[in-house]
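Sanity check record (used in CI):
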Amino acid sequence: MDTKGRLVAGSYNRNEFVLINADEVARVTSTKELSRQICQICGDEIEITVDGEPFVACNECAFPVCRTCYEYERGEGNQVCPHCKMRYKRIKGSARVEGDEEEDDTDDLENEFDIGGNAHQIAVSMHSTHLNVGRGSQVNGSAIATLLEQDSASVSPDISLQTHREKDAGISSDKHTLIIPPYMSRAKRVHPMLVSESASFQPRPMDPNKDLAVYGYGTVAWKERMEEWKKKQDEKLHVVKRQGGGGGGNNAGEVLDDPDLPMMDEGRQPLSRKLSIPSSKINPYRMIILLRIVILGFFFQYRITHPVNDAYGLWLTSVICEIWFAVSWILDQFPKWSPIMRETYLDRLSLRYEKEGKPSELANIDIFVGTVDPMKEPPLITANTVLSILAVDYPVDKITCYVSDDGAAMLTFEALSETSEFARKWVPFCKRFNIEPRAPEWYFYQKVDYLKDKLNPTFIRERRAMKREYEEFKVRINGLVTVAQKVPEEGWTMQDGTPWPGNNVRDHPGMIQVFLGQNGVLDIEGNELPRLIYVSREKRPGFDHHKKAGAMNALVRVSAIISNAPYLLNVDCDHYINNSKALREAMCFLMDPTSGKKICYVQFPQKFDGIDWHDRYSNRNVVFFDIDMKGLDGIQGPIYVGTGCVFNRLALYGYDAPMKKKPPGKTCNCWPKSCCFCHGSRKKNKKKKSDDKKQLKNREASSQMHALENIEKGIEGIDNEKSSLMPLMKFDKKFGQSPVFIASTLMEDREVPNGASSASLLKEAIHVISCSYEDKTEWGKEVGWIYGSVTEDVLTGFKMHCHGWRSVYCMPKRPAFKGSAPINLSDRLHQVLGWALGSVEIFFSRHCPIWYGYGCGLKGLERFSYINLVVYPLTSIPLLAYCTLPAICLFTGKFIIPEISNYASLVFMALFVSIAATGILEMQWGGVSIHDWWRNEQFWVIGSVSSHLFALFQGLLKVLAGVNTNHTVTSKAADDGEFFELYLFKWTSLLIPPMSLLIINIIGVVVGVSDVINNGYDSWGPLFGKLFFALWVIIHLYPFLKGLMGKQDRVPTIVVVWAILLASIFSLLWVRINPFLSKGDIVLEVCGLDCD
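Expected output for Cellulose synthase:
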């Protein structure tokens, strides 16, 4: 698609479409020819009449239909408008057909066209020529005839029609209309094609009053995907046969001497394999889990049967909290029952798909980079991410990078323009010297020892020169940021004087700019560069744009129009590619001939730069990525975490995963059919099997049609040929009214429709990113990223797993992606708040895994993990209450546990030992250090009593009162010094609950110790349990205390004021109300004094 280096902006609803010349003379070129409407039948542009107005076929609804389709419909179709079902009236210049109204001033057109005998051939020939050649193209008659003959020969004459060749008895014979259904030749056109007279199609009766979709009109068909790599390998692979005696010795020797044979054998082997955890590590872990469940049974038996009568409220609260903790532990533990690891073979991938002397057969990949606010997400970070993508170790013609600017910021646009210029120097440097990582900021941050590493002097000179280039590039980017700090009153203006279309962030047209990948744009060495495309979707007031999920869905559609790669990579703007072979790692799974068809996405772990060694707030999430995700990979695959994920485009389109045909079960042949042992059980399940057979048949059809879903759900038991006939109207309801996009979903090789001009593609690309495109479609419901939650990533992955797909967790030795983490305490809590709020929204939605998705492809243990993922914010309430109990116990002198016996001591000791053993064994097979494990435990408490608690209340407000809360975009790391933000104190209301818990427990310890000192030596014994309980809370909140202190030498004033306030309130309340003092036990004694 050639835009000649200009920004494309437009609005489909307002019929606006302009090309902005940012490089040439200061003018705006209005593209009049691109403002035409698109025919909703064939996808071509509608003609302009001699009066200068667009052609209108239907005077009732003005449904956009071109002149050729109008003539074809009147001559060979049912003569009614597909939209309003009203009969087409004859337009001046059109041939008469039977049923036209009599006109007084009619022009004699009956003899103008020869419509006798060859009307069908003439109409279809005109239609096919119009659609295949394109506007303004000229072809001779022989070329048309050849094309039509090829199309006719490609159609099988015995395709079964959906009407089963039966006539409708309710239609009289004189009202029967015979039509030929529109087909799709080689899955690359969506318009009707010519059918030769030799093809033995049976005519179909059709009632004009019925919906055309019932008869299959407007449908498209696609061929079954053939695995051509198998054929190629079978043709080239020599089969070595060992023969006895001396016969055939020479031939055998020639085969064995073939140098291609061992490589082809290696290339046919699997591209990856599973690595199970050694039994010496996993079996003890499983035994400890089962043992811990047994110990929990004895523990709760003792706790429930031994209440504390003098502190019944405290005891009951503690028991309820402990039961909830046990349930949440079980939900979290069992998905880790069978963890696995994986290993890839990149050399086999190259042998299979990259043969010498031939073009690379690796699949195309579209890469999505999303950004919103350039002030919180610095353009320099986004530029580094884009540069690492453009320099990835993958064929350049297979890569297209899309940058979604959801803030329509001119700063992002200008920074991307600078990035594209610098990429012409950076990309060849990376590939020439094979450097890692390929993000310049982090590459030059590494320290290089020139003598120790024995580097080539040429490389040293090139590296120094490139570093100077990058420093100049940084100066230009930072200069743009400085200028963008102050917005002019009239708004931003481009270099040619054109106002920036995105000056109003909430009301602007869609914008598309192709920076790289155009003809003539090469790097400094004359090599081709990957395509780099800027996209900003249209935004208008009154529309719900669905934040990140809506932006990603817009990229899915626009990428289908422009490049239509079968696989998509989604990364955040601050997550650069740290391993240049990351895409090849993913292709080892997705392009594997045996298992790749059932994989919906390949998820990579998140790794972060700029985090201090102590990792005070558990930003690395090591326990989650190295333990939990490995466990899920052994079930149905890891969850989608929002970035660093390579998708199968078909899975994003909401299709079911292809099903394997199970071998027939064993039957009993030794007994007669009347045998009660065999025949009786089969008879009992006969109805169930027939229903399952219908479902299996549908899913087999979708598998053979490359997992394309049978949208026509009302038809059961259809066979493979009939499943390929899908009503176009159903596609419109699913994918929206873009014939080009619908055609792209049906492409066999995920190619862009041939013969389409750049103008029509640009028009369609602007159309699919319009703000109203998703109205009355399944986008966000069943297709693309799913709406309804802040954590759209979890919901999207969950829907894919419900469709029967499985995901894969890939952990290469060199981390595939690295990003920036909000290491500041307040920003970290806000990040966790967003995640927890998304889980609460899913919990209260129809997609809650507790009740959604039964009877589909979701496995039981995978459901356990999703349930745990949506209910974990509920743990905040019992944990907050449980962390408050130690302070109350110290204030009152009561405790939640009675005096324990020897049996109780053994149970408590066994429980503590099992908890410690579970953690140790997890760290052992997961490869996690005790430091990372302990930081995770600490921040689990901090996040639960702050972010999770607020998320729970915000979710309830949203569900019950409809109060929406805005998700805060966390700021990315800045260049203000190493770990600068770690010591920055930012006040937020999320700090109140953990700070209150910390203060009251510290005060409780002081009160408890003071009380024991006053009461004597005998009071020390009961105090130890309470002190242990309180210190457990304080130690878990210690990183929070360090965050409050920051880098200051004194405690922040807000902490001092809050501590004094809380201490005063608790002291006054305790003096006024003591609920643990029985009023009836007061004994009055006579003092012995005579008051009289």
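The chain is about 45% helix and 5% strand. If this sentence no longer matches the regenerated tokens, the check is flagged for review.
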